[in-house]
Amino acid sequence: MPALTKPWRSSIAWNRATDRVPALADAAPLQRTKHGGEASSSRVLLRDALHSLHRRGAVAVQDWDLLIRQARRAGLLARLGYELADSGLLRSVPAGPRHYLEGECIVAEKHARDVRWEVRQIKVALAEMGAPIVLLKGAAYTLAGLPPARGRLFTDIDIMVPYESLGKVEAALRRAGWDSGDLTPYDERYYRRWMHQIPPMTHVLRGTAIDVHHTIVARTTRHRLNARKLFETTVPVPGDPTLRTLAPADMILHSATHLLNEGEFERGLRDIDDLHLLLRHFGADPDFWPLLLERAAELDLKRPLYYAMRYAQRFLGAPIPEDVANSARLAPPGAVLRPVMDRLFDRALRPTHASCRDALSGLALLLLYLRGHLLLMPPHILVPHLLRKAFRGKPKEPEPRPGLGNPF
Amino acid sequence: MRTGPFWTHLRTPIRGLVDEIATLYEGHPISASEAFADFHVSIAPPISLRRWFRPKAQFLADGIEPFHPLPFDQALPMFEWGLNWCVATYVNHFLIVHAAVIARGGRAVIMPGAPGSGKSTLAAGLVNRGWRLLSDELTLISLEDGSSIFGLARPVSLKNESIEVMRRFAPSATLSRVVHDTAKGSVALLKPPAESIAQVAEPARPAWIVFPKYLSGLPALLEPKPKAAIMIEMAKNAFNYSTHGARGFAILADIVDSCACYKFTYAGLDEAVEIFDRLESRH
Amino acid sequence: MHTIWRVVRESPLLWRAWEGEIVVYNDASGDTDHLDPLAAEIFETLLEAPANNDELTDRIAQALGVEKTTDLRDTVASVVIRFHGHGLIEPVEE
């Protein structure tokens, strides 16, 4: 073993040298204490219920009232409904909660119809471009028929196009009725100069939103990701050659990076459940795992993948092969950092319902928020940006209005 | 407290609000130990320095704040609007139409209408002359059979001049305290007849769709209205019509098919009662 | 200019007719449209069989008992464009 000067570093180096990387099998002890020890995390009924359904196809619910409320806040009410239906359990749920589970599944079906129609409109708008459109996230899951599509609720559609064609794409969308709306000069600079993105656009008639990307990791981060690599490996959507999605490994890495690196956890539990579903789905093929590890290394996204697999397994029961979870190729965090991150993400990956908060939740979210911003942008952009954000209010929902036609 | 098909769990420190609700909702079941509540609402002063200046009341639906806080004395109307918001936002096991609905002999009149059409006043008048109140705002259509109409038998919301009109028309009906300067002017709530509350669990069959419009100075007029236009209006007035897609279309189309459809202008409640009585006996 | 139109095949359409008017629901788009008697006649014609604008104008003139004026032709053309924009009809490929 080489002589090392700093005691801190030496413990990590020693771990690596002897390959004693902390194993994801550590997840088991956490499960045990969850039910006996930490009172707060045993109230995360939704996570426990999903874990139980995924692993055992069964679930025992003591408090349907709270479970429904947590699921609704987490945006997972429909998914919970589908999971219960898959296990043949929905019929035996008491009538009160069952109405809301079934009702939300109907809402999710509506969203799915809307997404397909919207993608069709986008295809028409961009038909002259000649290049295939790469769907990302929810739209990709839905059009490709992947497991995270089930029970999904949408707010916008994400697509990816080559950086060089951003101008033409924006123009084509504008001609077809999408518009960026009124942005402050700061917002315009934020999107165009600093984040190198087109601001999100809304369709003037349908009111639907589209977000056009050119890569999966913001250009301002230190991850120097060559987007061309992503385009090279896209796969066609079954039944429609004009639409493509990222390759499975890239899809997982995109989702992992977005969740674990960006510090926004409003949909945190939903996102980690998506990851769990993708890992389970693609991981059924044993050849997939080495590809995933290799791609993570190639795109310099090892750390987010490590956390994604760790928490997908720990909280939701994703079947990650032990040698993959323990793989040194992922350059996992050391023995001091890892438990800290575990505690932070445990809190972040809960429904944002009051019943799931504990004394440290606020701090955990703040720390991860700051970490996300630090990872996202260098300090000279970050500080003014945070100051701006602090002074914005949040609009209240208007009174619900009945409607005809196609709201999102 | 249960109002029709929904259990609402209410938490509030405002003693006056509890008393008002106890009066207006008398007859609806109350329980301290329901395992499941459809809605969890709270009305309380928000945590802010203002609570000693001009105290406000904040409505929260399980932690979500759909409206800005309102002056303290508007807590009761805020409870009503908030409960309407909950039903319109969260419920999808009924098709919900923004319409008043009353019934007699098991047959229902659905009265869609924009605010200001006078539908609430009309409903309030009719239920004090022998009709049963299902709801003044939210018509619930069962998805199971696509035609049973369910109600909530909640207080009827009256505004401005209607309050005085109802005082004279139904002097024995219970009215809440009048709240002034709300976003909708002066508001008071009318307690439904006890029988309406007692019958709230019974569905009614849709028989008529009537679009009311208050037009002072002219004699009341009931005219047939083309069904295609009625269908579109019903769809526009249904909160979750789009959500239910093909099913929603089929249900509304069947209801429009099976109902006699009219538009109705009126200037006084007595005339209106007479016309509705005739309508009911005719069919 | 002589495009032949037909009612869309892949999206399920539901409709009801009352007093010469039609309300049609398109499951793919989620839109519900109200067709006045003229538009309803065009829609029903296309339900029976695909047709181009000329044939539609002929049919409408006959059904409504009116002259085949340029105005009528233009009206039919604009309804056809609207139907296409709403995803109710599509051109028949050669």
Compile the SSE list and pairings.
The complex is a heterotrimer of chains A (about 400), B (about 280) and C (about 90).
Chain A: H1 7-17, H2 27-36, H3 45-56, H4 64-74, H5 77-86, H6 95-125, E1 133-136, H7 137-143, E2 157-160, H8 166-175, E3 178-179, H9 185-194, E4 201-203, E5 209-213, H10 227-232, E6 235-237, E7 240-245, H11 248-261, H12 268-283, H13 288-298, H14 302-316, H15 322-325, H16 337-348, H17 361-376, H18 379-390
Parallel strand pairs in A: 1-7, 2-5
Antiparallel strand pairs in A: 1-2, 3-4, 4-5, 6-7
Chain B: E1 2-3, E2 6-11, H1 15-24, E3 39-44, E4 56-61, E5 70-71, H2 75-90, E6 94-104, E7 107-112, H3 119-127, E8 132-135, E9 138-142, E10 149-150, E11 156-159, H4 161-169, E12 179-182, E13 185-190, H5 194-198, E14 205-214, E15 221-224, H6 227-236, H7 245-258, E16 260-266, H8 269-282
Parallel strand pairs in B: 2-3, 7-14, 14-16
Antiparallel strand pairs in B: 1-2, 3-4, 4-5, 6-7, 6-8, 6-9, 9-10, 11-13, 12-13, 15-16
Chain C: E1 4-7, E2 13-18, E3 21-26, E4 31-35, H1 37-48, E5 51-52, H2 53-64, H3 70-85, E6 89-91
